[in-house]
From TrEMBL:
The keyword Mitochondrion does not apply. InterPro entries: EamA_dom, EmrE-like. Belongs to the drug/metabolite transporter (DMT) superfamily. 10 TMS drug/metabolite exporter (DME) (TC 2.A.7.3) family. The chain crosses the membrane at residues 7-24, 30-52, 73-94, 100-118, 125-144, 150-168, 180-201, 207-227, 239-259, 265-283. The keyword Transmembrane applies. It is found in: Membrane. This is DMT family transporter.
Amino acid sequence: MQTEGDALKGVAMVAVATLLFAAGDTMGKHLALLYATTLILAARYALNLAFVAATMAPRHRGAIWRTRRTWLVLVRGLSLALASVTMLLALRVMPVAETVAIMYITPVLVMLASARFLGERISPIGWLGAILGFSGVLLIARPGSGLDPGGVGLMLVNAFLGTVYHVLTRVLSRTETTMALMFHTALVGTVLFLAAVVVLGPGPLPGVLDLGLILALAALSTLGHLLLTSAYREAPASLLAPVNYLHIAFATVLGWAAFAQIPDAPGFTGMALIASAGLLAAWRASR
């Protein structure tokens, strides 16, 4: 039975995880402006793979890679890897806050996809959330906003790939273990981006400081996902889902601090609409 202390611990874990993700997004923008996306992601996924293997393999051995629907597991890993690419490429040309905000249209798309492919019913509240979410994206990416159209397009692709990833996670959770899904996600990204570095070349190599930032980016991502996963053991998803939207707030503050980029009034309104859509989706799921 979960206690109030457990719930507060879970909320704190998600809050810290979103701060780590926002810090990683800010570092990612700096690094993406200087170095090849494939090099950055190869380091990030390789460190994640090493962490998963080091912590899980000694106890579970072959179970960490054993799957029943392997091709779907690989497609899930590929969708997240490609989403990582679109995120870094978008950060090259977009402010951190707006980039992160558009990414959060994904819960609405997951709801719509679940209705189409998993047979789930969408309530009037769900449709209201969808309208709010898409209105928010339109406000952020409106003509005259000054955002790069290519960057907006990349983040819409990112949201689609994130939807594929989350829907497949729901489908595969019925037959696959969490550790196997984590291992293959890290493995697919590591193989894909190391191969890309070999084929395309590493590009400019980072100095000591930026190499440290690349490793820090990988560590922040790994630790953030670990905290996020652990939080759901402490508190119900209906309580934790709204806390995820602190990511947008942290990204706004850090993007302003690092790059002096702050959304305008319609942009803030769009972010609020997207967050409201996500909160409605979380409330609907809890019901």
